[in-house]
Design brief:
Oligomer: single chain
Order of helices and strands: HEEEHEH
Radius of gyration: 15 Å
Helix content: 40-55%
Strand order of the largest sheet: 1-2-3-4
Largest sheet: 4 strands, mixed
Number of strands: 4
Distance between the termini: 42 Å
Strand content: 5-15%
Shape: globular
């Protein structure tokens, strides 16, 4: 478990490369904000979290808990979910817009293209308001 990195993951890099190619400029893993968002777009007052399905308790095939030591994993993932909610509440209080992208949404090419385009539109539409 100690070998698992919390930043510079493949899904994160995919999202960053897409945003950069569309002209967005961002900061990475800003530790001045609650939850240390993966991508921060200050101009658009938007943060993006690229969550791993397992570690953040997504209800998909990749988020399924192991059968062994189930109580430990349930407790660990529940605390991650609670921490995520708390950080998102704090970010909203500070006026930030939040976008969450799940790892499973970036696996297949068709789904990835749709999700990235949708993310781009959310950033642009939110900036107008």
């Amino acid at each position: 478990m100690s070998k698992i990195s919390g930043k510079e993951t493949k899904p994160e890099i995919l999202v960053r490369k897409y945003l950069f190619s569309k002209g967005f400029r961002y900061r990475k893993n800003d530790n001045h904000l609650p939850g240390k968002p993966d991508i921060v777009l200050p101009k658009h007052k938007t943060v993006i979290f690229v969550h791993g399905c397992f570690w953040h308790g997504h209800h998909c095939k990749a988020g399924k808990l192991p059968e062994t030591n189930k109580e430990f994993w349930e407790s660990k993932i529940d605390s991650s979910i609670g921490r995520d909610k708390k950080n998102q509440r704090e970010l909203k209080k500070l006026g930030w817009k939040i976008i969450v992208i799940w790892q499973c949404e970036l696996k297949k090419k068709e789904l990835r293209a749709k999700k990235l385009k949708e993310t781009e539109q959310k950033i642009q539409n939110d900036h107008i308001i």
